[in-house]
Amino acid sequence: MRLASETLGEGGDAPLVVAHGLLGAGRNWGALAKRLAKRRKVIVVDMRGHGDSPWSDDVSYPAMAADLAGTIAAEAGGRADVMGHSMGGKAAMTLALEHPARVRKLIVADIAPVAYDHSHADTLAAMAALDLSTITRRAEADRALAASIPNLALRAFVAQNLAIESGAARWRPDIAALAAGMDGLVGFPARFAHDSFAGPALFLRGGASDYVSPAMHGAIRARFPAARIETVEGAGHWLHAEKPEAFLAAVEAFLDA
Question: In which band, very low, low, confident or very high, does the pLDDT at 118 lie, cut at 50, 70 and 90?
Fold first, then answer.
């Protein structure tokens, strides 16, 4: 699948491809991508079923990895540094394991190659249940979602996925496909249980997040033996948004090494 993408900057040792998380979009990385692009070419993608990229019933990590491999082949000269957050981090890990020749350096933000107990099914169900025919402004969607998504920050994040054109509202993400594929999205492909990526890898975890616990470090190093695991202190799961300076410093130090 050809992904929608935005390219910024030029130069550097290798282009940097950035993959967002579930219900995100490339535009979520706008400010950080611009700063990273001062010293290198940066390609920010919309993952399949998100943003302006095409929809597909297949939202598996191997499918997402194939999309990223295609982007690298078409827009990054065949090999790139790859950075992914959450869902995008799992897609980036899958890319490195399945298409290692496409990846020079790997950066994974607050996710591990393991299956998680949590699910975002309730959020997707709330989005699917919203009567879009009654929505003409994001503020109306916010009020309508308040009962089913009480967390204000999460609700604001979800609302960014609402497109309103000529008075008609629609969700940019493929809610049905993502909901149907949720078991795979919270998991990690079992077929890579004995595979590894030998290249440089940086795993950044939020100090206030429980997504990458010490118990998961073994699973990370089994598949990524050269991995460095670092903590962005005081950051939760959206560490790049909550602590952008610390996140940026860690990423640039790794890419420049």
Answer: confident
